[in-house]
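re: ur question from the group chat, yeah i did fold both. here u go
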Amino acid sequence: MDGKKTIKFFEFDSGSISGSNFEYDYECKAWSSLGLKTYKVVCSDGSYRIFDPPVLSFPLTMGLGDTFKHTSTCDEYDSAGNFLYSSNFTIHLTLEKEEVITVKAGTFNCLKFSGWELDEGVESNLDIWLARKIGEVFRKYSDGSGGLIEKRGLISFTNGHFTYCPDD
């Protein structure tokens, strides 16, 4: 993106890549001197979103209890590359604690972030778990009353030249 080398992070809404009717999206992210930035999100139907400026998803350094907030503009495009609309995107997170979490890809020592995200005018509560040298391993969205909207867990990852994909 704009001359930056990004890493592609896959997310599977169904939690599985088997079968032919699953939906997915992937995010193009890269580390900068400020932290981990999200440049683009691509959906399985070919539509995509570009952030300007790129969203600072996580600052490079934070201590327990520290909070950060980042605002960006998100441009939406259909699968043919036609511009659809722009919306504001804001993420506001606090580094809550260290926690062990188990997902399909394994068990990880993580930093847990909690806060909220404003996307296309909809505000959702957000919890994210990050593992060292892996990145995001679990994400949970909920509404204002604590009702679950969506959750995503890591099902496999590549570290160096090796891909770790546990058996079903």
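okk and heres the other one u asked abt
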Amino acid sequence: MNVAQRKIYFATLWPAACRVNGWNRNDNIKRIAVLNDCMRAIGAPAVESSSELGPDEVTALFTYLKFLANQASLELSARWLDCQEDYEAFNRARQADWHESETYGRGKNKLDRNRFAGATSAQGEALDSFDPEAIRKRHLTMANRHKKKLQREGRETALPQDNPQLVASSVAPCQDFEGDPF
């Protein structure tokens, strides 16, 4: 977990989940227990600290905390179920959507068209079937197109594995997530 992600985790997501569930936000034992509940649910190994998490696990944890903060939301419930099904593919879907929006812009041009078997997002809509192979293909395609765009523009060609802007785009855990695939 990088610095930007830790800031979101400790300042926004964890306090929101604590507020809704009646937990003490300063209770580190409870925080680690919730963290390990999430890791157990997705099939990842247990950890001692959130700093040990990789990008796929961070996305899963954020999805879980958003779900805990608003369990009445069918959208967040569906996202958490998709994440439990294959948390690595779930993160690739978020990355694919981020690469696509960085390449083509938000809400214009190719994002408005139904591509990739009619899906407007790599994650699909809530309650759609979750296809890890299609997600893998879309992630590779969008990451490659984004890299080529950066090369054409003469900007940095190395794309980060876990992008803090991707996670930072979904800071508010208890609101309607317009434009946010969570």
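fwiw on the second one: Confidence is low (pLDDT under 50) at residues 111-115, 164-182. Helices lie at 3-21, 28-42, 55-69, 74-85, 87-104, 132-152, 164-168. idk if thats what u expected
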